[in-house]
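Record 1 of the preview.
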Amino acid sequence: DGFGVNEGIIVMAATNRVDILDPAIMRPGRFDRKVYVGRPDIGGREEILAVHAKNKPLGDDVDLKQIAQTTAGFTGADLENLLNEAAILAAKDGRVYLQQEDIRRAFVKVGIGAEKKSRVISDKEKKITAFHEAGHAILFHVLPDVGPVYSVSIIPTGAGAAGYTMPLPEKDCLLYTYPSPRD
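->
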């Protein structure tokens, strides 16, 4: 604690917001080691999903590996939130088990933003958005270094997007070069 001699005492702490800690806590001698824990890779996400899915009844169609593929950049807390949102959707549908579709819908909500189905969109706007998203889908299909198309929507989201097209990456990629090297 910095006020007395304490031998044999180890203090461990964790935070996602080191920027808001009181500077007195961070003075030399208080915490001698700082360990950065990064976001999990695809294998780590699959293992984390298995932990959070342990007490949730899953339908036969649930594929944790595919979910891990679609959730690049998610933390353990994000993955827990994803499965909890999926459980809420399943409960709203009167089911006691989660389906892959529940998880897909939960992903849209937590990963992209809640769909704004009540927003009035003109036929012209729908057509423009459909062409735009179709263009993304075609590019994802023909470009060699982009995963296959996983989901396409022309329903606006809370993030301000008129729609979205999401690929299914085959692996996590931290660095991109131009042109992308072939594996």
